[in-house]
Amino acid sequence: MGTLDRQVTWLFRSNAVINWLWIPAILACDVRLRRDLRSRRGAPRRQVGARRRRPTEALPDHAQEVAMPSPKPQARTQTVLAAAGLSWLGLFVHNIADLPGQTPLSPETAYPAVALLLIVVAWLSVARRAAAWLLLGWGWLHLVGGAVLSVLPIPLWPFQPPQTLRHYAFHALYGVLQAPLLIVTTRYVRQLRARHPARQ
Question: What's the helix, strand, coil split of the chain in %, to 5?
């Protein structure tokens, strides 16, 4: 048993020596791997089969506009129809206040309604660009001419508008109801001009 104990003790000691000899080798490999990783991190990566990119110069302004075209003008048809309806409603309310006995079929209300309806039909067709300008002009005409100037006592008018608070209130409502159409069409026209500047 004494011989066996000495053999076992020698075996454990030899294994311990071998294990201690592996430690420097492992540390040396670890240091070498760290150096390789640092060198690879500093170098630019390149994929297999990828071409090298050459530095490009900054494009001029006109080239950038061609490369990145402006977004297509957008305006919901429901929004335009609602804005046009409010514009006509302002005209109708104004006519009821100024002209007694007015109905939707009266000439002062029906004729502008037909004109506005034709412009809206043009908006639904391929002539949307022209219809947008016509709707914008319609809105400004009724805002400036109908809601503002026609209520003022200007000598050029063949009539004398009553200078009462009630009359001014109806004209104020008339002008406010033109605002949605002006906002929608102005935004659309600006988008058109940004997309096609050469056509303006």
Answer: 70, 0, 30
CA distances from residue 27 to 30, 140, 181 in whole angstroms, order as listed: 5, 84, 79
The whole-angstrom separation of Cα 89 and Cα 149 is: 19
3-state secondary structure 91-151: HHHHHHHHCCCCCCCCHHHHHHHHHHHHHHHHHCCCCHHHHHHHHHHHHHHHHHHHHHHHH
pLDDT tens by residue, 65-86: 444 555 555 668 889 999 999 9
The residue behind tokens 């006592």 is 153
What is the three-class DSSP state of 46?
A: coil
Place of tokens 């209130």: 169
A 10 A CB-CB count for 84 gives 22
